[in-house]
Amino acid sequence: MNTSTEPPSRTRTLQAGHVVAIGALLSAAALVERVPRFASGRRYLLCHTSSTLDHLTLTALPLVLAAGVAALAGAIMMQAKDTHGAALPVVWLAVVVVLVVAADGVDAHGEALAAHLSATPFTEGACDYVPQDYVATPGWFFW
Q1: What are the phi and psi torsion angles at 134 (to 5°)?
Q2: Is the pLDDT of residue 100 over 90?
Q3: Pick from 136, 143, 139: nearest CA to 99
Q4: Is residue 117 a contact partner of residue 53, using CB atoms and an 8 Å limit?
Q5: Which residue has the higher pLDDT, 10 or 65?
Q6: Could you please report the per-residue DSSP string of 114-138?
Q7: Alpha carbon separation from 9 to 5, 12, 81, 101 (Å, rounded)
Q8: How confident is the model at residue 88 (pLDDT cuts 50, 70, 90)?
Q9: Is the four-CA dihedral 106, 112, 114, 116 of positive or negative sign?
Q10: CA angle 129–135–140, rounded 5-degree value
Q11: What CA–CA distance (Å, rounded) separates 41 from 14?
Q12: Cα 128 to chain center, whole Å?
């Protein structure tokens, strides 16, 4: 039994739930910015197909989804209080941040490729298909 009359310590501690919530918010924001309706990046008119650009586009989205899954996995693990130390929430947040940064890096590379492809002079009727309007994702880390 504690008979001390000292007031409880008022030090601020980083709660595991807060760290996981930050990761979930980062993941959700990264996903929303990739939805075409909300995208506000630079636009490129592409006249020819590029399998590399398609591949980059289809790589960035799973990275963002993986960040969301990592945030969710961190939240689930935080429910089992005996299985984590003080560093585990920070590790999950770091995983989320690394995945979001990787997705932004892939998108930045895709934008550079789109800029290069759109620099080709546009000639009516010379396109492989109806010209595609490519909207670059405005990432947070590579602008």
Answers
A1: -95, 125
A2: yes
A3: 139
A4: yes
A5: 65
A6: HHHHHTSPP-TT-SSSSPEEEE---
A7: 12, 9, 22, 37
A8: confident
A9: negative
A10: 155
A11: 35
A12: 32
Alpha carbon distance 122, 46 (integer Å): 9
In the chain, beta strands by DSSP E: 43-46, 132-135
- What is the number of residues in the chain? 143
Max mean pLDDT among 29-33, 101-105, 115-119, 122-126 falls in 101-105
| Structure tokens belonging to residue 38 | 């909300």
Please answer whether residues 64 and 6 qualify as being in contact, where contact means their C-beta atoms are separated by less than 8 angstroms.
no
Could you give the maximum distance between any two Cα atoms of the chain, in Å? 87
Answer whether 104's CB lies under 8 Å from 27's CB: no
Question: Which amino acid, residue 32?
Answer: V
Check the CA dihedral 111-112-113-117 and report its sign: positive
Residue 10: CB atoms within 10 Å: 5
CA distance 90 to 102: 18
Task: State the average pLDDT over residues 51-76.
Answer: 87
Among residues 24, 21, 101, the alpha carbon closest in space to that of 60 is found at 101
Give yes or no for a contact between 110 and 57, defined as CB atoms under 8 angstroms apart: yes
